[in-house]
Fold:
Amino acid sequence: MEINSNQYPHPVFVGSVLNDELETFILKYAKHGGDIAVICDSNTAKHCYPRVKEKLKNKFNLNFLEFPEGEKSKSLNTCEKIWKYFTECGLRKDSLVINLGGGVVSDIGGFCSSLYLRGIPFINIPTSLMAMVDAALGGKTGIDSGELKNNIGIINFPEGVFVDVDFLKTLPKREFFSGYNEMIKHGLIANKEYYLDLTDNKFLNNFEDAIIKSIKIKMDIVVKDPYDKDIRKTLNFGHTIGHAIESTYLKYSNKSVLHGEAVLLGMITESILSEMKGIMASDELKAIMSRLQPRVSKIIIDENTINEVIQLLMYDKKHTSDQLNFTLLEKPGKAIINQNLDVSQIRQSLSLLSEITKQQ
Ligand SMILES: NC(=O)c1ccc[n+]([C@@H]2O[C@H](COP(=O)([O-])OP(=O)(O)OC[C@H]3O[C@@H](n4cnc5c(N)ncnc54)[C@H](O)[C@@H]3O)[C@@H](O)[C@H]2O)c1
Ligand SMILES: [Zn+2]
Structure:
């Protein structure tokens, strides 16, 4: 099933990859017997590639590359391996890259495809919940450089995205809940009822419906501002602080925090900041806290983390303007972009977050 709008910058299909829809779509790019390169990480190679291979192996010349799973692979080093492999396979403009995996695979696979021969077509088949509702959609591609997340990248749209919820069967629980937090974000910025339903766990028996709701929220925003100049920034709610927490943990790599786990902490902190700035009423903040706090994983935000997070935010500041720019929340369902805050407010909100993480 194709999700409604043909005005989206790329189509999104929801359904089994075993349907003919995928094959028919691919034929527009790579002809019968044409070259396809599938990119996976070590987990999706094992759990997801066999299904896709079965479907496509007799019709196309399938090439396959895997790299070790994890955020650390989202690096220039992996890009070099991918580009070398593309060259070895002889990929050209009439070939197709299939990124089969979570956000790491779609981010780096989309990035490498966008730069190879100044751009060859690619599609995303997301296999993690995070990628199905967020990372694989909307054309943001990129890699990390050192501990700085996503700071090398380009917006370039996939030809299409194929979402098959069956892949979630092998996804580890912790990864599932990380993606779930991103869906909660969609509700918080655009649809209060959806946010309430998600935090009340109302979708357990019809989870595909929730995924479709999230895809629509994201794509309806992307279509209005594909190049991230304005309203697309609403999707950044929770991410300014979230990314800084994620980067801090990436740097001190003996502990790990997942993207969605960091975003949840970011959403809590940025809700606190929304109230501090007088945008959100105190009772709204209380209500949000009561729903989000129980979802916080065991992550300690201590004084060192706070200092590191602030330092990273200041680094960002050097590249934008004099003040730190946030997307804040007026209430569930209504986000407000371009809100400036000063460092003392941010420090105060992180101290409150620190208290919350100690209670978990
Ligand atoms: N481009 C964007 O708009 C955007 C948006 C959100 C996140 N991201 C990026 O996406 C990344 C996070 O995405 P993620 O959470 O999918 O991370 P991920 O790609 O690392 O996947 C999470 C883990 O789940 C495993 N996995 C994935 N699918 C599986 C399956 N079906 N069965 C078993 N294991 C499976 C992966 O191997 C990995 O170990 C981050 O790098 C983040 O920056 C990008
Ligand atoms: Zn995110």
Q: What stands out?
A: The two ends are 41 Å apart (CA to CA).
